[in-house]
Request: fold
Amino acid sequence: MAAKKKMAEATEWSYSPSPESTTHIQLKERYDLYINGKWVKPSSGNYFSTFNPATEEKLAEIAHANEKDVDLAVAAARKAYTEVWSKLSGAERAKYIYRIARMMQERAREFAVIETLDGGKTIRESRDIDVPLACNHFFYYAGWADKLEYAFPNRKVESLGVAGQIIPWNFPLLMAAWKIAPALAAGNTVVLKPAETTSLTALKLAEIIHDCGLPPGVVNIVTGFGDTGAAIVNHKDIDKIAFTGSTAVGKIIQKAVAGTNKKLTLELGGKSANIVFEDAPIDQAVEGIVNGIFFNQGHVCCAGSRLLVQESVADIVVRKLKDRMNTLYVGDPMDKNTDVGAINSKEQLDTINKFIEIGKKEGTEMFQSACSIPDKGHFCPPTLFIDVAQSSVIAQQEIFGPVLTIQTFRTVDEAIQKANNTPFGLAAGVWTDKGSRIFNLTTKLKAGVVWANTYNKFDPTSPFGGYKESGFGREGGMHGLNAYVKLS
Amino acid sequence: MARLEVLKTYKIYIGGQFPRTESGRFYTVSDPKGKLLGNICLSSRKDIRNAVLAARKAFGSWSERAAMNRGQILYRIAEMLEGRREQFINELISQGSTKTKAIQELDMSIDRIVYYAGWCDKYTSILSSVNPVASSHFNFSVHEPTGVVGIIAPNNSSLIGLVSLVLPVITGGNTCVVVASEKLPLCAITFAEVLNSSDVPGGVVNILTGTNKELNDTLSTHMDINAVVYGGDDLPAFQQLQENASVNVKRVFHQTKEWLKTDAQDLYMIADTLELKTTWHPIENIGGATSSY
Amino acid sequence: MGKEKRAQSEQLLDFRNSPAIDKVGVEERVARFQSRSIKNESKKQGLLIALNMIDLTTLEGKDTPGKVKQMCYKAMHLHDVHMGLPTVAAVCVYPSMVKIAKNEVKNSKVKVASVSTAFPSGQAPMEVKLRDTKFAVAEGADEIDMVISRGKFLIGEYNFVFDEIATIKEACGNARLKVILETGELATLDNVRRASDLAILAGADFIKTSTGKIQPAATMQVTYTMLMAIKDHYDRTGVMVGMKPAGGISTAKQALHYLVMVNETLGAKWLSNEWFRFGASSLANDLLMQIMKQETGIYQSSDYFSID
Reply:
């Protein structure tokens, strides 16, 4: 018997492929725009393809919306707002949004599979993190629709009107939820543009919105590229712009709405420090580091992409980190055992590899996990750069991939200084066993989210957003309502 | 030949089960024409005793559930109640309501449940605080449910009164023992069936039928009940209740809103049965700026 | 042997210096192991590995020679209807039953493990615990499963606990020593880690979670904490120590989760019964049912598997 024979030696036990079933999902060959409760062909007649980044197979064709289509969508949103949505009581709005949440829960597995196929993130993450959070986000905000006056003491609360929303490709469904749910709860109508490489789950969400009987025009989905987004940003009849994406584009948008009355919130890039003190629970800190940078292949605005480790424990942390990285499975995102999936697009992979080359040239020690990489598709092994300096390019610029830079520090103040010494300010991690030290750091770190003894934790009730060039405005929680209301 | 219908036995609801009153006694309710509607359990103080035990047992896990999870369970009560519209409307009519009022009462009950479901994971954000104390401490105040709450439902309502008192109490994480309307008890028991099919754990809500004269005293003197909410309008009875409650310093509340009105629901009914806990923790300041938040 | 270890520890480590453990972090790490999907060939392989790792156990006041003999037979003949199944790793009994067990399994590779040191409470003077151990060893036990003095540990008398382990280790002779921490009584993961470090330094060949007599017994969380203690020791010294979760593991699904955890923390070297055991009684049949399900494709009934 195989097991008996190997009693005296190491028993290699590798996991058989465990692919998630895809037979139950329904994908159309071609998707039109969802405007005014109907599926509408793009006025240019143009479609573009969306691909599975793990296999490079084409999944579907997506409509390319131009200015005319955006105009139609905004008009539909305005009409729905004036004639229907703003006339409904909060309690009735709530019930619509609850319907969306419940139906998303019912169709959860299909969402997870399509999210993974379209974007490259692992099925384990889509299934266990993205989709549940998205469903819960709708469920949470549904409950605010008829309670808004409690969130703004001493103020009369009204909706803004039509919100134009542009979302990125790293958490497609979740970002759609983060945008649409609070907007609807506060009484606004929406025109949303998903990212061009990951439009499918937003379009499936449109199907659910349709099946829930949401009045036509309340939510409109216009797919396309940067030009579609620009059409939204520049549209005269939009009251509010919400953007999640790179800092570079965020600045363009901020400039573009100057002089208009459009309210703006931005959720941009980051280069967040994950700080490990010598008294940290070391094994859990290592997990936190791994989770901080390799979760979602590092395609996370708040990724803990800079490890600041106290010099006295640097060696042991780095050693344990390397050991842990060698147990990560990189590969087919549809396999339930894969830990690190595909990079979202060839462009992004090129960007990441460019930074890796810079890192190598900057001369620090590089380590990559000993995993096999599939030959098709876009993949990058988890990567470390050790003994990096604060002034190196890879410690300053956002890479947006599974690449961690490691710096050492000696004192608490030095850690704080290094963590804050950046134009970004989205998140930070603090690992220490001492409570009073945690609070010292939370008061001094210039970051919108501080994770103490944990990392990359999200909840619909917890406000998320950045300081400085990581953007302004908060999403999630009671404070997430601010962006979508008018107070008087 | 007309088909003979199977008549319903109205039992009480304790610990997720439907036992009969341990006393074996009953009283009858009839429709306006005098037709017998049911033999209703005339609960005894021992039933109250059992219900409080069940409520206390259920308190730990109910209060420790994630708020979001409580909200989803409460929402499901609304789903189940919505599905039983006809049954409740008929029951209300048989107890003397008109069809219009019955529909209004049912709609309000369902929507009120949805309203409170949405509060579960939000009241903390509003009611809690971080307090900027003058010393180098992180100081925060958070609410916790008080424990087991006794509820005396108003006599003149079969459904909406009970729903309006129970929901805010369980939204906050408490469990409860409810004395249903003596005059109009039917919907209370059918509502127990709705709770039972809604993922609400047994013991979170316990519903007894019987007379206020017998049950109110046991409820208000019970040493393991933390608060009492009185929904009736009998002022001498309420005073007796307040006096009884002093035996273990119960928190006492009198709620007499017009339950069919849309605004007869708010955050503060949840806050009533919550306790406030304030915690201090040092903030170690190494260099630079001082003190606290 | 014990004296050497003592000196080494005094130099190397202060027992108060075990790393802090964050329980919430451990819960998350453990949840990842439990969401691994083990299918087809890897599942079959895992089930067989797990079967061969079982210490089939009977530790009841009402144990008799007859009961022990039947269990020993099952240990060597798990399901003869199916060709080529392994045996379990060992049988685990009270010292009074060791001779009987040894006689039953003498022609097989199944080992005889004996509890000792006033199992399960350990509340007895050292002479009694020593005598208990020496008796079991003399009766032929291949392995000794001892309990630590939890009361002494919880009041901070770590040196006492270290000494008692070292002393029993001496009395074991060639028998391998498993040290039961009784993690359910230690309560916190910090304590579990400290007790693990201490037991390893004092000479444990295996560290074991529980007596199985109280709840909670073995959990993924305490096992993970103990595996990391073993890993750190191995990384520092190159010395391997074994791990035995005991009690509360009754399904094949759970057993596979544990194997995943061992595989991804300590690695392939520990995936044998020389370094990992399951202290279990009903686990064997569930593993057998799952093996049959893998082979036939249909769900099984317990009627078809012997319950001795």
